Amino acid sequence: MGEREVAIILRDELGIAVHRNWAEQAAQGGVDLIGVPFWAIEIKRAKKYLSDWWTQAASQARILDDKPVLIYKLDRKQWKAQVCYCALVPDSHLHFRLEMDLPDWCSIVREDLCLGKNVPLANSGNI
Length: 127
Hints:
By secondary structure, the protein is of the alpha+beta class. It has a single domain (3-113), classed as Trna Endonuclease, Chain: A, domain 1, CATH 3.40.1350. It contains 5 helices and 6 strands, in the order αβαββαββαβα. The protein has a 4-stranded mixed β-sheet.
């Protein structure tokens, strides 16, 4: 779980509408959150990290032709984000994962959004 908590964080950090993906999750187990352009967001919250999480995030992103991000929180820890290096450096053929604090990933996304991409406003819709 944790989708609602992360949706609120992303809305506040990015200033865009981010929603839980109820319909697709129920029908086919799709990405957890929608609304961040070009990113397929998978959310996990647990006691210990499981490597299958990244596989799931990458698979869902491939289906959507988006960049994968795994946002997770372990008990008594802060939210973390994992991305593939090639998602941040598009011309790269390197496919290793980078891990960062969630606010750092938000900074990367905010920078992309400032380059002029049109996105829905944060106050439209429910989380």
